[in-house]
Amino acid sequence: MPVPVRSFAKINIGLAIGAPRPDGFHELRTIYQTIAAHDVIRVDVKSGTGIEVRCKTPGVPEDESNTCYRVADRVLRTIKQRGKVTISIEKNLPVQGGIGGGSSNAVATMFALERALRIEIPAAEKLRIASEVGSDLPLFLLGGTVLGCGRGEEVYPVQDLPEFPCVLVTPDKAVSTPQAFRDWDEQFGAELTRNGSSATINTFSRSVFEWLGGTSSGVPVKNGDRAETLLLDLVRTGIANDFERVVFPQHPELRDVKRVLERHGASYASLSGSGSSLYGLFRTSEAAESCAAALSRDGVKAIATTTLPRENYREQMFFGR
Q1: Are 124 and 93 in contact (CB under 8 A)?
Q2: Cis bond upstream, residue 205 (ω within 30)
Q3: What is the 3-state secondary structure (H, E, C) of 166-226?
Q4: Residue of 10, 91, 126, 258 with catalytic role
Q5: pTM here?
Q6: Which of 39, 91, 136, 258 is catalytic?
Q7: Alpha helices, DSSP H only, in 19-86?
Q8: Dmax (CA) of the chain
Q9: Same CATH fold, 165-310 and 3-161?
Q10: Is 10 a catalytic residue?
Q11: Which fold has domain 3-161?
């Protein structure tokens, strides 16, 4: 019987781009945050051999290039088992939207395979497999609030943020991440060389330290006030996504969406990854729902959702729990 798993999206709360590394990737710093918006992955294992990927959404490959296929292949080779694996992908998240849909699908496949095969893959092996397949995959092994370093594959759980009401906007537009990096190098590569490639990284690190370390002078706050206090502190630090500097000039309609989010009361709004998805964090669910409804009336794809803390991420992943 197929094992269904929720495959949650992520947003980037700030993203700093450093200089290219010897391996061709850029040094990055970001805060990943999982959110409740999700796809559904169903994994079925029967006797036989081979891996089959099924998805009705255009643009999702069904061959060996699919991240779910690549993870399943590595899992079977790691545990030295055979089987006919069928992976069905029900897409609700955009393809190439900057919210980690394909990466999340792949990690959800790994978790579903564990349950289907009644095995537990060692944590170190899970991390190895995830890192081999893609930079965004390891964060989905953790969920919640995660510091991403290196090319994004080095992940460290940090103090988990409370649940924030969130509006996720998914325009019908794909932004090429490789092209966004090339545009960044062309426009800001000389600046990084002149000022030192670590300058951007250091600025981001200081801002994150101020935010998560508490810029409220260490004054204790009630649990009900914590989310609002953290949102205010986030705005004060000026944490931003460097991709906005190259993506917004080429896609001004995305900048306009960010402004709409802010006008409708988002305490913090940003591009996620290299886009094209954007999000806004709100103080109340009512404000988030009102903003999502207004955007939808204007023909912009938007949903009201929430950020997903680490404990909730694991609890809500499997159905029937």
Answers
A1: no
A2: no
A3: EEEECCCCCCCHHHHHHHHHHHHHHHHHHHCCHHHHHHHHHHHHHHHHCCCCCCCCCHHHH
A4: 10
A5: 0.93
A6: 136
A7: 67-79
A8: 61
A9: no
A10: yes
A11: Ribosomal Protein S5; domain 2 (3.30.230)
What confidence category does residue 193 fall into, taking pLDDT thresholds of 50, 70 and 90?
A: low
In contact, 311 and 144? CB cutoff 8 Å: yes
Pair of tokens at residue 307: 């950020």
CATH of domain 165-310: 3.30.70.890
**314 contact partners, CB below 8 Å, separation of at least 6:** 143
N- to C-terminal Cα separation, the chain: 17
The CA distances from residue 139 to 12, 52, 107, in Å, are 11, 25, 9
Q: In 3D, which of 198, 205, 33, 11 has the Cα closest to residue 93?
A: 11
- Of 169, 137, 165, 172, the closest CA to residue 151 belongs to 137
**Residue 245: its pLDDT value, please?**
96
CA–CA separation, 145 and 139 (whole Å) = 9
Q: Which helix (H) or strand (E) holds 145?
A: strand 145-149
**Which pLDDT does position 313 carry in this prediction?**
97
> Is 160 annotated as catalytic?
no
**Domain ranges across the chain:** 3-161, 165-310
What element of type H or E holds 279?
strand 278-281
CA separation for the pair 160, 163 (Å, rounded) = 9
